[in-house]
Amino acid sequence: MKIKALTRSAASAQAPGSNVSRQPRNLDPALHPFERAREYQRALNATKLDRMFAAPFLAQLGDGHVDGVYTMAKDPTSLERFASGSGDGVVKVWDLTNRDEVWTTHAHENIVKGMCWTRDSKLLTCASDRTVKLCSPYSTPSNSAPTATYLGQGAFTGISHHRSQPTFVASSSVLSIYDISCNSSTPAQTLAWPTSVDTITAVSFNQIEQSIIASAATDRSLVLYDLRTSSPLHKTVLALSTNAIAWNPMEAFNFAAANEDHNIYIFDMRRMDRALNVLKDHVAAVMDVSFSPTGEELVSASYDRSIRLWSRASGHSRDIYHTKRMQRVFSCAWTPDNNFVLSGSDDGNIRLWRAQASARQGVQSARQRQKLEYDAALRERYKHMPEIRRIARHRHVPKPVKKAGAIKADEVAALKRRAENERKHSRKGLVKRRPEREKTVLATEH
Length: 446
What we know:
Radius of gyration: 29 Å
Strand order of the largest sheet: 1-28-27-26
CATH class of the domain at 58-354: Mainly Beta
Number of helices: 5
Number of strands: 28
Keywords: Nucleus, Repeat, Ribonucleoprotein, WD repeat
Structural class: alpha+beta
Subcellular location: Nucleus, Nucleolus
CATH superfamily of the domain at 58-354: YVTN repeat-like/Quinoprotein amine dehydrogenase
Protein name: Sof1-like protein domain-containing protein
CATH topology of the domain at 58-354: Methylamine Dehydrogenase, Chain H
Organism: Cryomyces minteri
Family: Belongs to the WD repeat DCAF13/WDSOF1 family.
Helix content: 10-25%
């Protein structure tokens, strides 16, 4: 057998489209003394371009609602469908691809307090008219009668569906568990804390530990229930009441609570005596909170007319989104593809935002992807540098939010000083008075 091997010397190697021989590159740092300076300048330029191209707002969906949007729900079986409920009882289903509504109905007589999807793509809605209605947006035309109606003893405030079973829970003064497979309009069982008579304002099924239910009430409490034992597990009382609860989709034991004290508390249900993290940047009550599909980030809607994006491990928001016309934000959600954020506000509009303000969707060449990855790596490497940190952290916020933030910072500083002074005085009271001081006081009294 005769074998011919093709060989090419380094001297004959040429760059494509040129007659110049390609020279080998020596990576010895001693021969490149300005490499760090060049990298820093590239990182600075990449940070500036990232902020220059930041345009988070994408679009407003359709004509919105006539009244404010107070609740939203994502279809777990679809990437482009989600539902919204307004203050006049109207429920709409939207298509994110066309950014328009595909189904609508007048489900309730007053404000829609909660909604969720079943596993077979049916929609459950509840309101303060003491009814829960089951609709089929994919198989029935708009304004059609509901498939089923479930009755309760009091006004409903929230609803959540079991991940794998045809069961849902609705909150009022108690937690009512309904079975969709049964032809009964009454609850199969009810759960409540033994000594509590307050209204439950929020409820949520754990999507991993599927028998666990978390609820929040007007008595400032967070209560965990277990369906396997049909009994409550634990109760924690916070400083103010909680408006919404969201479970981490990737960590079975962690959940976030949107509180009236402007903060978001992340708890581990195995240890409820302290919060894992407290997210504090809002200057008004946090009305809603939602985890990203990866479980690493959160989005929150606040009464201060803004939405904020957070990292799960950080105490401050990484971005704030707002517009001049957006009013109080009552609901928010992360799209299942992790690329967009939805918000519903008191002005009746549903807005679509980019999860990464400077990111652009669409087909990218290999060279574009390589450049973006290189810029992201440079920003991460030099993020501690003062100028890069200042540019990356700078955000334009509305004037009322900025003023309220300054006032809140002064109040927090005053509370810290007061607590520190009280500790100092308490320590002084425990120390025995000096004899010289006693003689001076006695001489003054005589």
